[in-house]
Amino acid sequence: MNNFKEKIHILADFDGTLTKPYSKQGKPRPSLISALRDGNYLTEEYAQKAHAMYEKYHAVQNDPNVPRGTKKKQMEEWWRAHFSLLIEQGLNKRDLQKIIESEVIELRDYGIDFLDLLNKENIPLVIMSASGIGDAIAMYLAYLGKLTPNIYIITNGFQWDNKGFASGIIEPIITSLNKDETLLKNYPAIYNQVKNRRNVILLGNNLHDIDMIKGFDYEDLFKIGFFGGQKKEDHLQFEQQFDLILEDTSSLAPIIDIVSNWLNK
Q1: What is the mean pLDDT of each run of 10 residues along the chain (265 residues)?
Q2: Which CATH class is domain 5-263?
Q3: Per-domain boundaries in the chain
Q4: Which residue of 8, 142, 233, 247 pairs with 147 in a disulfide if CB–CB is 3.0 to 4.6 A?
Protein backbone atom coordinates (compact mmCIF):
# COMPACT_ATOMS: atom_id res chain seq x y z
CA MET A 1 0.00 0.00 0.00
CA ASN A 2 1.11 3.51 -0.77
CA ASN A 3 2.94 4.82 2.32
CA PHE A 4 1.90 8.43 1.62
CA LYS A 5 -1.73 7.33 1.46
CA GLU A 6 -1.50 5.79 4.92
CA LYS A 7 -0.42 9.17 6.28
CA ILE A 8 -3.31 11.27 4.94
CA HIS A 9 -6.23 12.69 6.91
CA ILE A 10 -8.74 15.47 6.26
CA LEU A 11 -9.51 18.15 8.85
CA ALA A 12 -12.65 20.14 8.05
CA ASP A 13 -15.12 22.65 9.37
CA PHE A 14 -18.79 21.77 8.73
CA ASP A 15 -21.28 24.65 8.31
CA GLY A 16 -20.52 26.49 5.08
CA THR A 17 -17.49 24.32 4.37
CA LEU A 18 -18.83 20.85 3.72
CA THR A 19 -22.34 22.26 3.30
CA LYS A 20 -23.73 24.66 0.71
CA PRO A 21 -23.83 28.33 1.75
CA TYR A 22 -26.72 29.19 -0.59
CA SER A 23 -30.07 27.71 -1.57
CA LYS A 24 -31.08 27.01 -5.18
CA GLN A 25 -32.77 30.43 -5.13
CA GLY A 26 -29.48 32.08 -4.20
CA LYS A 27 -30.48 32.86 -0.62
CA PRO A 28 -27.97 32.28 2.20
CA ARG A 29 -28.55 28.95 3.91
CA PRO A 30 -28.69 29.12 7.70
CA SER A 31 -26.28 27.30 9.95
CA LEU A 32 -27.76 24.51 12.06
CA ILE A 33 -28.17 26.77 15.09
CA SER A 34 -29.68 29.56 12.95
CA ALA A 35 -32.22 27.12 11.56
CA LEU A 36 -33.22 26.19 15.10
CA ARG A 37 -33.37 29.82 16.22
CA ASP A 38 -35.34 31.05 13.21
CA GLY A 39 -37.69 28.09 12.80
CA ASN A 40 -40.75 27.17 14.82
CA TYR A 41 -39.11 24.21 16.52
CA LEU A 42 -39.20 25.45 20.10
CA THR A 43 -41.18 28.06 22.04
CA GLU A 44 -41.71 31.69 21.10
CA GLU A 45 -39.86 32.60 24.30
CA TYR A 46 -36.84 30.65 23.08
CA ALA A 47 -36.84 32.45 19.73
CA GLN A 48 -37.07 35.88 21.38
CA LYS A 49 -34.27 35.21 23.88
CA ALA A 50 -32.06 33.52 21.30
CA HIS A 51 -32.41 36.45 18.91
CA ALA A 52 -31.62 38.90 21.72
CA MET A 53 -28.42 36.96 22.45
CA TYR A 54 -27.54 36.97 18.76
CA GLU A 55 -27.95 40.74 18.49
CA LYS A 56 -25.81 41.27 21.58
CA TYR A 57 -22.94 38.89 20.92
CA HIS A 58 -22.77 38.90 17.13
CA ALA A 59 -22.05 42.63 17.25
CA VAL A 60 -19.07 41.92 19.53
CA GLN A 61 -17.89 39.09 17.28
CA ASN A 62 -17.76 41.40 14.24
CA ASP A 63 -16.35 44.48 15.98
CA PRO A 64 -12.73 44.96 14.84
CA ASN A 65 -12.06 47.17 17.86
CA VAL A 66 -12.73 44.42 20.41
CA PRO A 67 -9.55 42.51 21.38
CA ARG A 68 -9.46 38.83 20.38
CA GLY A 69 -9.13 37.71 24.00
CA THR A 70 -12.29 39.61 24.94
CA LYS A 71 -14.11 38.17 21.95
CA LYS A 72 -13.12 34.64 22.97
CA LYS A 73 -14.61 35.10 26.42
CA GLN A 74 -17.76 36.69 25.01
CA MET A 75 -18.28 33.90 22.47
CA GLU A 76 -18.00 31.23 25.16
CA GLU A 77 -20.37 33.22 27.38
CA TRP A 78 -22.83 33.37 24.47
CA TRP A 79 -22.71 29.64 23.78
CA ARG A 80 -23.05 28.69 27.45
CA ALA A 81 -26.05 30.98 27.84
CA HIS A 82 -27.61 29.68 24.63
CA PHE A 83 -27.07 26.03 25.55
CA SER A 84 -28.60 26.60 28.97
CA LEU A 85 -31.57 28.27 27.27
CA LEU A 86 -32.01 25.28 24.97
CA ILE A 87 -32.08 22.92 27.94
CA GLU A 88 -34.52 25.19 29.78
CA GLN A 89 -36.81 25.38 26.72
CA GLY A 90 -36.94 21.61 26.26
CA LEU A 91 -34.73 20.89 23.25
CA ASN A 92 -35.35 17.32 22.11
CA LYS A 93 -33.53 15.17 19.58
CA ARG A 94 -36.77 15.17 17.61
CA ASP A 95 -36.27 18.90 17.00
CA LEU A 96 -32.86 18.25 15.47
CA GLN A 97 -34.28 15.47 13.33
CA LYS A 98 -36.98 17.84 12.02
CA ILE A 99 -34.31 20.36 10.99
CA ILE A 100 -32.40 17.64 9.16
CA GLU A 101 -35.48 16.32 7.39
CA SER A 102 -36.45 19.85 6.30
CA GLU A 103 -33.29 19.77 4.15
CA VAL A 104 -32.39 23.28 5.24
CA ILE A 105 -28.78 22.08 5.15
CA GLU A 106 -27.26 20.26 2.19
CA LEU A 107 -23.80 18.97 1.36
CA ARG A 108 -21.96 20.80 -1.38
CA ASP A 109 -22.23 19.24 -4.83
CA TYR A 110 -20.10 16.09 -5.04
CA GLY A 111 -20.25 15.90 -1.25
CA ILE A 112 -21.46 12.30 -1.32
CA ASP A 113 -18.69 11.38 -3.78
CA PHE A 114 -16.16 13.04 -1.48
CA LEU A 115 -17.34 11.07 1.56
CA ASP A 116 -17.47 7.85 -0.46
CA LEU A 117 -13.88 8.33 -1.64
CA LEU A 118 -12.60 8.89 1.89
CA ASN A 119 -14.50 5.86 3.16
CA LYS A 120 -13.30 3.65 0.30
CA GLU A 121 -9.68 4.64 0.86
CA ASN A 122 -10.06 4.52 4.67
CA ILE A 123 -8.93 8.13 5.03
CA PRO A 124 -10.01 9.71 8.33
CA LEU A 125 -12.21 12.79 8.12
CA VAL A 126 -12.07 14.85 11.30
CA ILE A 127 -14.89 17.40 11.44
CA MET A 128 -14.23 20.18 13.94
CA SER A 129 -17.28 22.39 14.34
CA ALA A 130 -18.32 25.19 16.67
CA SER A 131 -21.97 24.47 15.86
CA GLY A 132 -24.47 25.33 18.54
CA ILE A 133 -26.20 21.99 17.97
CA GLY A 134 -23.27 19.81 16.99
CA ASP A 135 -25.15 16.59 17.71
CA ALA A 136 -27.08 17.29 14.50
CA ILE A 137 -23.93 16.77 12.39
CA ALA A 138 -23.74 13.05 13.13
CA MET A 139 -27.53 12.81 12.82
CA TYR A 140 -27.40 14.48 9.40
CA LEU A 141 -24.66 12.18 8.12
CA ALA A 142 -26.58 9.18 9.46
CA TYR A 143 -29.70 10.49 7.67
CA LEU A 144 -27.69 10.44 4.43
CA GLY A 145 -26.37 6.97 5.23
CA LYS A 146 -22.83 8.37 5.31
CA LEU A 147 -21.84 8.23 9.00
CA THR A 148 -19.02 5.82 8.27
CA PRO A 149 -16.32 4.54 10.68
CA ASN A 150 -13.65 6.83 9.19
CA ILE A 151 -15.53 9.99 10.27
CA TYR A 152 -14.70 11.61 13.61
CA ILE A 153 -16.60 14.63 14.91
CA ILE A 154 -15.36 17.19 17.43
CA THR A 155 -18.17 19.59 18.27
CA ASN A 156 -20.49 20.91 20.95
CA GLY A 157 -22.88 18.36 22.31
CA PHE A 158 -25.54 17.77 24.92
CA GLN A 159 -26.20 15.07 27.43
CA TRP A 160 -29.63 13.58 26.68
CA ASP A 161 -32.11 11.93 29.03
CA ASN A 162 -33.98 8.72 28.22
CA LYS A 163 -36.81 10.71 26.61
CA GLY A 164 -34.48 12.52 24.23
CA PHE A 165 -34.41 15.87 26.03
CA ALA A 166 -31.18 17.83 26.43
CA SER A 167 -30.19 17.63 30.09
CA GLY A 168 -26.62 18.90 30.25
CA ILE A 169 -23.70 20.35 28.31
CA ILE A 170 -20.66 18.30 27.29
CA GLU A 171 -17.41 20.14 27.94
CA PRO A 172 -15.39 21.78 26.51
CA ILE A 173 -17.33 24.47 24.69
CA ILE A 174 -16.08 25.08 21.14
CA THR A 175 -16.57 28.49 19.52
CA SER A 176 -15.42 29.91 16.20
CA LEU A 177 -12.68 31.77 18.07
CA ASN A 178 -11.18 29.05 20.26
CA LYS A 179 -10.41 26.39 17.68
CA ASP A 180 -6.75 27.14 18.39
CA GLU A 181 -7.34 25.75 21.89
CA THR A 182 -9.45 22.80 20.73
CA LEU A 183 -6.47 20.49 20.33
CA LEU A 184 -6.82 17.04 18.81
CA LYS A 185 -4.66 15.71 21.63
CA ASN A 186 -7.49 16.51 24.03
CA TYR A 187 -9.62 13.91 22.22
CA PRO A 188 -7.43 10.78 22.59
CA ALA A 189 -9.87 8.39 20.88
CA ILE A 190 -9.69 10.56 17.75
CA TYR A 191 -6.07 11.64 18.10
CA ASN A 192 -4.88 8.03 18.20
CA GLN A 193 -6.51 7.45 14.82
CA VAL A 194 -4.69 10.33 13.11
CA LYS A 195 -1.49 10.97 15.07
CA ASN A 196 0.59 9.10 12.49
CA ARG A 197 -1.36 10.55 9.56
CA ARG A 198 0.67 13.71 9.29
CA ASN A 199 -0.20 14.71 5.72
CA VAL A 200 -3.22 16.93 6.28
CA ILE A 201 -5.71 18.61 3.96
CA LEU A 202 -7.52 21.35 5.90
CA LEU A 203 -10.88 22.71 4.71
CA GLY A 204 -12.49 25.88 6.05
CA ASN A 205 -14.54 28.94 5.14
CA ASN A 206 -13.18 31.24 7.83
CA LEU A 207 -9.69 32.44 8.72
CA HIS A 208 -10.16 31.06 12.23
CA ASP A 209 -10.60 27.56 10.76
CA ILE A 210 -6.85 27.44 10.17
CA ASP A 211 -6.52 27.25 13.96
CA MET A 212 -7.92 23.70 13.84
CA ILE A 213 -4.42 22.38 13.07
CA LYS A 214 -2.81 24.05 16.12
CA GLY A 215 -0.89 21.60 18.26
CA PHE A 216 -0.80 18.85 15.62
CA ASP A 217 2.64 17.74 14.43
CA TYR A 218 2.06 17.56 10.67
CA GLU A 219 4.53 16.91 7.86
CA ASP A 220 2.54 18.26 4.91
CA LEU A 221 -0.35 20.70 5.27
CA PHE A 222 -2.51 21.94 2.40
CA LYS A 223 -5.08 24.56 3.43
CA ILE A 224 -8.13 25.11 1.25
CA GLY A 225 -10.50 28.01 1.94
CA PHE A 226 -13.98 28.68 0.57
CA PHE A 227 -14.16 32.45 0.21
CA GLY A 228 -17.51 34.21 0.29
CA GLY A 229 -16.55 37.77 1.18
CA GLN A 230 -16.68 40.81 -1.06
CA LYS A 231 -13.91 43.01 0.33
CA LYS A 232 -10.56 43.04 -1.42
CA GLU A 233 -8.71 43.14 1.90
CA ASP A 234 -10.58 40.04 3.08
CA HIS A 235 -9.56 38.16 -0.07
CA LEU A 236 -5.97 39.27 0.49
CA GLN A 237 -6.06 37.78 3.99
CA PHE A 238 -7.36 34.50 2.57
CA GLU A 239 -4.54 34.52 -0.01
CA GLN A 240 -2.01 34.95 2.78
CA GLN A 241 -3.41 32.15 4.94
CA PHE A 242 -4.75 29.49 2.55
CA ASP A 243 -2.84 27.57 -0.12
CA LEU A 244 -5.89 27.38 -2.39
CA ILE A 245 -9.00 29.57 -2.45
CA LEU A 246 -12.26 28.31 -3.93
CA GLU A 247 -15.37 30.33 -4.65
CA ASP A 248 -17.99 30.10 -1.92
CA THR A 249 -20.35 28.34 -4.33
CA SER A 250 -17.78 25.76 -5.40
CA SER A 251 -18.49 22.05 -5.31
CA LEU A 252 -16.23 19.54 -3.56
CA ALA A 253 -15.04 18.21 -6.94
CA PRO A 254 -11.70 20.11 -6.70
CA ILE A 255 -11.13 18.55 -3.27
CA ILE A 256 -11.77 15.09 -4.72
CA ASP A 257 -9.15 15.79 -7.39
CA ILE A 258 -6.62 16.94 -4.80
CA VAL A 259 -7.19 13.91 -2.58
CA SER A 260 -6.89 11.63 -5.61
CA ASN A 261 -3.58 13.27 -6.54
CA TRP A 262 -2.31 12.80 -3.00
CA LEU A 263 -3.33 9.15 -3.13
CA ASN A 264 -1.19 8.67 -6.22
CA LYS A 265 1.95 10.19 -4.69
Answers
A1: 80 96 86 89 94 94 91 95 97 96 93 98 96 95 98 97 98 90 88 95 95 93 89 86 94 96 87
A2: alpha beta
A3: 5-263
A4: 142
